[in-house]
Amino acid sequence: MLVIDSQVHVWDGGKPPHHHRQSPYSAEELLADMAVAGVDKAILVPPTWDPRGNAPSLEAAQRYPDRFAVMGLLSLSPEMTRDELQRWRAQPGMIGARLSFNRPDTRAMLISGAADWFWDAAEAEDLPIMLLVPGLLPFVAALAARHPKLRIIVDHLAVPRGAKGAQAFEHLPELLAMARFDNVAVKAAGLPGYAEGEPYPFRSLHPYVAQVLSAFGADRVFWGTDLSRMTCSYRECVTMLSEDLDHLSPQNRNLVMGDGLSRWLRWDVNGMDEVSA
């Protein structure tokens, strides 16, 4: 089984928010942790707090191209030209863009339509995007309908920051309704962080995951961790879905744990040496 983590941060500077690890986290530390946990590859998502932006992640992907690819941060400046976007994407290791709309200023950009130029360009360039959009699923649904060839991944099942237990999934019917768009997938990353006072294997979360899998299909649900804010072990993050989720067939398990993500991002994994069982 190929195991690909759909979101990990590495960084070498800046001040992380309190719910993340406070000290820098290098690619080499991550590789050591991946070996213990049984994770083969990872998508590096540059954290917003690092003053060097995409650089640490791109440097890691360039040192270890068989292990990492980057969904990079991108400033949605309306002055950016198509040529500039192509050059941004052409950086070695860059595989797509990750955009966060979880602050008042960025939410206003999405709601007002100020980012509309980017969706046109991303669709034309066949650029996959990950979107952090808690509370904004209607806008993502409209975006998916207007741009049917734009590959969209909704981050963290659209769970609001800090929400736990049943409160974390109050929006689930709205998310499940988006499965009607073939160009929308979901990232099931950070799941242990949504359990409320419950130890591994976090069984109260399993019914929610099962509903997501039933709606989207295993080929559009991507396991991940957001490791730097997890309080359980990396290995437990892996086995929560790969071993402990009931009724997940071997084929669907392979899709959720890595095959589906590599296909969606068109990330060539041929020839890599797997470390997991």
From TrEMBL:
Pfam families: Amidohydro_2. Keywords: Hydrolase. Residues 4-258 form the Amidohydrolase-related domain. Transmembrane segments: none annotated. Signal peptide: none annotated. Gene3D superfamilies: Metal-dependent hydrolases. One of its GO terms (molecular function) is hydrolase activity. It is an enzyme of class 3 (hydrolase). The keyword Hydrolase applies. The keyword Mitochondrion does not apply. It comes from the Bacteria. InterPro entries: Amidohydro-rel, Metal_Hydrolase, Metallo-dep_Lactonases. Belongs to the metallo-dependent hydrolases superfamily. This is L-fuconolactonase. The lineage of its organism: Bacteria, Pseudomonadati, Pseudomonadota, Alphaproteobacteria, Sphingomonadales.
